[in-house]
Specification:
The complex is a heterodimer.
Chain A: E1 6-10, H1 14-24, E2 27-34, E3 37-42, H2 61-64, E4 68-75, E5 81-84, E6 91-96, H3 98-111, H4 118-125, E7 127-132, E8 158-162, E9 166-171, H5 174-183, E10 187-188, H6 191-207, H7 219-225, H8 230-238, H9 244-247, E11 255-261, E12 267-274, E13 284-285, E14 289-290, H10 295-307, H11 309-314, H12 324-328, H13 335-354
Parallel strand pairs in A: 2-6, 6-7, 7-8
Antiparallel strand pairs in A: 1-9, 1-10, 2-3, 4-5, 4-12, 8-9, 11-12, 13-14
Helix pairs in contact in A: 8-10
Chain B: E1 5-10, H1 16-22, H2 27-34, E2 36-40, E3 52-58, H3 64-76, E4 77-83, H4 84-89, H5 101-109, E5 132-134, H6 141-153, H7 164-170, H8 195-198, H9 215-224, H10 229-240, H11 243-247
Parallel strand pairs in B: 1-2, 1-3, 3-4, 4-5
Classes of the chains: A alpha+beta, B alpha/beta.
């Protein structure tokens, strides 16, 4: 912890900070929507911000990869004209939890892999991320400690940590420095502030305990043993295939591409829209064949996309422990419970082998 | 090239879907630039005795007279579109199929019911071939426009094969079940962009059950929310009763 990278801001000045931020940029922050639901949306004043919130319905992924995004426009009036489109705007995301930052890091990894997603990479440059550290669990669905997303590491421009009367702010990029300078409200951190941050982190190690009875490093083995586990068959009965789990997942990036023309039928656009492996048409191909017809196979696929396939390809777990999929599932398919059942079933198999 | 000749017809229905088309607003000018409406009882008195390029049919088929009439319309139309829930899935008229025809007749017409012969309610595709389906009670205008454009381009329109929840989640609505309400979104065909929920209402399931609904799973869900199973089955029957005729 280099002290020169830290600033502090008293809580009484917090509203001034947000209001000053709004004067020079579009600001997006968590806002309460009632019934224990929060969403990221543009704010016009500091009062709207919910500092204590459980993960929003949709993660801030929607600003990096919008639900519906125009990718090109075409005109066939005289000769074919095609124009690629990149939709972007300058944006400050305030109050992003470390789980959602982990999600954006996953997307960065995939979408900068070949073939690069140019629109995504351009959009990302225009977004500033101000994180907000969680001092405690948001609720019982989170498993951020299991995937190591409960402590800030990288992937943000500024990180706010609540230390009672004040926030300590970690500056992690030049974009972050710009905000500190432009708002002019922050004071340099002193040794005792750093000490308090250290104490908080030590305290967090006691609060955040591994939520799943295994370790991250054993995941590849666990999933290699579990492809035919009975757990998946149980999900066949439960899952409604509503696609909620994938829509709210910070690391799901599957999309469909569609064309739309105007009423002259000559001018139109091609757009992409979020799509989900949980839905019936997702794996349907010509001839009416469906590669993943059973709901169990689709759920299994989702889990392998989070805990197995991307470990081989990117060396990363694609679950951020935010708990959204479990929170939103009407059928009460709970990520932690599924993992725990897999572990139990797999342990039984190992014992049988030894006997 | 002359504009395609388009007609609107109605059978057993409330004519609300045609009203949606009549209420299309600013889009009307652009729409009328590309089609010629030759018959549309709700908005004009002219009739057409030739062939139709596209016929939009609202309403379900509920008596022998309607069967004959829809067959004639089919013969005269190059493309036939079922418009709205009554036409696509039988709609609320399908509830009639839960009763004996005589019982229904007596309830409505009393002792003279025999002068009003009736048959089981049918969706249009259960009587004649339908080329395009526009679901909804009433129809959702953006979907109507998309289908119209697909027809004119000569390409198929696929009604989404997933539930309303998908669109609802993308619109980031607070789930109706979180609000303590029962919503049909999880088992209802999408395509309406979760129109009702965006405006604070629950989904009534007017577009009909999705192609592969997990009804047993949904019953379990309702149990978790302490909603009686019977309540759900009634909600499903409200729009889906005619589906049974598809299975026969």
């Amino acid at each position: 912890m280099k002290i020169e990278q830290y600033r502090i801001i008293e809580k009484s000045k917090f509203d001034d900070f947000i209001n000053s931020l709004i004067t020079f940029s579009k600001v997006v922050a968590p806002v309460y929507k009632g019934f224990k639901n929060y969403i990221f949306q543009e704010i016009k004043s500091a009062e709207q911000v919910s500092l204590k919130y459980i993960p929003t319905i949709i993660p801030p992924k929607k600003y990096f990869m919008p639900q519906r995004e125009t990718i090109l426009q075409f005109d066939v009036n005289n000769e074919l004209k095609v124009e690629p489109i990149v939709e972007y705007e300058n944006l400050v995301l305030f109050g992003v939890h470390t789980c959602d930052i982990a999600g954006i890091k996953c997307l960065n990894m995939v979408l900068s892999d070949k073939p690069k997603d140019t629109a995504y990479l351009i959009r990302k440059k225009h977004i500033t991320i101000i994180g907000l550290e969680c001092n405690d669990y948001c609720d019982e669905y989170a498993s951020c400690s299991f995937v190591g997303a409960h402590i800030p590491t990288t992937g943000y421009d500024l990180m706010f940590t609540d230390l009672g009367d004040y926030f300590i702010v970690h500056i992690h990029s030049s974009k972050g420095t710009d905000i500190i300078e432009k708002t002019g409200i922050f004071k340099p951190a002193k040794d005792n502030n750093i000490e308090e941050l250290r104490n908080l982190r030590a305290q967090k190690l006691k609060i955040f305990n591994n939520e799943v009875p295994t370790e991250r490093r054993y995941l590849p083995d666990l999933f290699d043993r579990s492809f035919n586990a009975s757990v998946w068959k149980e999900l066949e009965q439960k899952c409604l295939s509503c696609g909620n789990c994938t829509a709210v997942c910070p690391t799901c990036y599957c999309f469909d591409i569609k064309d739309d023309v105007d009423l002259t039928l000559k001018v139109g656009e091609r757009y992409r829209i979020w799509f989900s492996c949980q839905l019936d048409p997702f794996a349907k191909v010509a001839g009416g064949i469906d590669f993943r017809k059973e709901r169990s196979a689709r759920q299994r696929h989702r889990f392998y996309r989070k805990f197995r396939y991307h470990i081989d390809r990117y060396g990363m777990v694609f679950c951020t422990g935010c708990g959204r999929c479990s929170r939103t599932c009407m059928a009460k398919i709970n990520l932690k419970e599924v993992l725990t059942s897999l572990i139990k079933e797999s342990e039984a198999k190992i014992w049988r082998k030894w006997l | 090239m002359s504009k395609p000749k388009v007609a609107f017809f109605d059978f057993a229905c409330c004519e609300g879907c045609q009203l949606q088309v009549a209420n299309i607003g600013e889009l009307l000018i652009d729409v009328l630039d590309i089609i010629q409406v030759v018959e549309f009882r709700e908005v004009m008195s002219e009739k057409w005795d030739g062939e139709f390029d596209v016929a939009f049919v609202e309403g379900s088929i509920t008596d022998e007279h309607a069967v004959k009439r829809i067959k004639k319309i089919r013969e005269r139309s190059k493309i036939l579109v079922a418009l709205g829930s009554c036409a696509t899935i039988g709609g609320v008229n399908g509830m009639k199929n839960s009763f004996q025809l005589e019982e229904v007749g007596r309830y409505v017409y009393g002792e003279f019911y025999k002068f009003f012969p009736t048959i089981h309610t049918k969706a249009v595709h259960q009587v004649v071939k339908v080329d395009y389906f526009i679901n909804g009670c009433p129809i959702y205008i953006p979907e109507f426009v998309t289908v119209l454009k697909s027809i004119l381009q000569g390409i198929p329109y696929y009604v989404p094969e997933y539930p309303v929840c998908v669109e609802c989640k993308l619109n980031e609505n607070v789930c109706m079940y979180d609000r303590g309400l029962t919503c049909m979104g999880p088992v209802t065909k999408a395509g309406c962009n979760s129109w009702c929920i965006n405006n604070g209402n629950i989904c009534y399931g007017c577009r009909g059950l999705t192609i592969n609904p997990n009804i047993e799973g949904f019953k379990e869900v309702l149990k978790n929310y302490k909603i009686p199973e019977d309540f759900l089955m009634k909600k499903i029957d409200m729009y889906n009763k005619c589906k049974e005729l598809d299975k026969q």
